[in-house]
Every structure is written in structure tokens, then in C-alpha cells.
Design a protein that fits this description.
By secondary structure, this protein is α+β, with helices and mostly antiparallel strands. It is built from seven helices and eight strands, in the order H-E-E-H-H-E-E-E-E-H-H-H-H-E-E. Helix 2 crosses helix 3.
């Protein structure tokens, strides 16, 4: 069921999707293990490339890179939960990525299926090391980065597959719970992804600056 939904997403986006619809890949030379982002210059180069793309300071490039990566890594878990409660887990050591028109595209050599109780451990295992490394090398706040992960839970359930994202965030708990607040029209973030700091851009529709918080 999840694969069919992701394939529909890809069709609607003219093939631009940041996660392989079937999730599982047999990596070739175009793929890189996500684990290689730690302890090597690679993550810093991706931050610099993102910053250059948007003519942004380095910390903003790091935040925007994370907004893309965390969205595609988190979306399958949130959508799987909303569809039938079956949550796909891509373990850190099994996850690979490549730069793509979506920013990055993610897949895994192996996926396990669980329930909502597995989401928080999966985020701590697979995202927390990258959050800490991005914070260290680019001086961007960890709470700012986790706010993008929280939105990656909320956005697909607001936009694509109906689901009670506030309940899901509460069930996941820290570090994502409390970073989204519900509004009459949807939700707003409690942290900023830093897009608004770029010249001549409009704030995201979910930006915290819209509420003054």
C-alpha cells in the first residue's frame, strides 16, 4: 500500500521524489551510504553546495539541506502509520542516498516493518547523529533541525494522506513533540527552517514568523 502511494506521489511530482517508492535498493556507484556523512568531509561539502545554490550563509545551507533530507527520510514512516499502522524502518547502516532533483533521494538495502513505537528509536538512531554533526560543523541549532523533522511528520498527513499528526508527534515524543502547533487552517512550526532569511523570498506557509512565535 505504501509503495502505491509513493508511486502516486512521484507521478504527481513528475518523477521528482526524494525516496525510492519501494524503499529497497541495490546500490550502484551513484549511491553513497548515509554513514559516510559522519567523520568525513562529505557532509560539509553537501552543506556548502546547498548554501551556494541558494546564495545563503553556511548555517542556512545546513538547515535547508536537513529540511530536504529529514523530509524524505521521515515521510515513509508517517505515511505508513497513517495508512495502516505499519511503519517502515530504514536503519542507519542500511540507508543510502544520492543527490537528485529532489535534493537527495534515499533508499535502503533492507527495510523492517514495525509500529509507531519504533519511530522514535529510528529517529534517534538515524537522524540524531546527523543533526548533531550538522549543528557542530555549521553552527545551526539542533532544535531548528528537529523542527524540520517534526514538519516532515505533519506535512504529508496534512497534505497527502489524512492522519492525526499531532497525535503521532505526541506518541513519538521528544525531540519532535512540541515543535508543531495546530491552527484553524492546519499547523505552524515553532522553529524556523531559515528559508525566510534568504533574500526576496516569502515565508513558508507554516513558518513560525507568521504567528509571531
Amino acid at each position: 500500500m505504501l509503495t502505491a502511494v509513493l508511486e502516486r506521489f512521484a507521478a504527481e511530482r513528475e518523477g521528482v521524489l526524494g525516496v525510492v517508492p519501494g524503499l529497497v535498493i541495490e546500490p550502484d556507484d551513484s549511491w553513497t551510504p548515509v554513514a559516510d556523512l559522519l567523520g568525513t568531509p562529505l557532509l560539509g561539502r553537501l552543506v556548502d553546495e546547498t548554501a551556494a545554490r541558494w546564495n545563503a550563509p553556511r548555517h542556512v545551507g545546513a538547515a535547508l539541506l536537513w529540511k530536504t533530507y529529514s523530509y524524505w527520510h521521515t515521510l515513509p514512516m508517517a505515511v505508513g502509520w497513517a495508512l495502516d499502522g505499519r511503519v517502515p524502518i530504514m536503519k542507519f547502516q542500511d540507508t543510502w542516498f544520492k543527490v537528485s532533483p529532489a535534493g537527495v533521494t534515499i533508499g535502503a538495502t533492507s527495510v523492517t516493518w514495525s509500529d509507531v513505537s519504533a519511530i522514535r528509536p529510528a529517529l534517534l538512531e538515524s537522524q540524531e547523529p546527523l543533526v548533531k554533526e550538522l549543528s557542530r560543523i555549521a553552527r545551526v541549532g539542533e532544535r531548528t533541525l528537529w523542527g524540520s523533522t517534526a514538519e516532515a511528520v505533519a506535512h504529508p498527513l496534512q497534505t497527502y494522506v489524512p492522519g492525526d499528526y499531532m497525535r503521532l508527534l505526541s506518541e513519538i515524543g521528544k525531540p519532535v513533540d512540541g515543535l508543531i502547533r495546530r491552527t484553524a487552517d492546519g499547523y505552524l512550526r515553532r522553529t524556523c527552517c531559515l528559508w525566510i532569511t534568504l533574500p526576496d523570498v516569502e515565508p513558508c506557509s507554516t513558518c513560525c514568523v507568521l504567528s509571531g512565535n
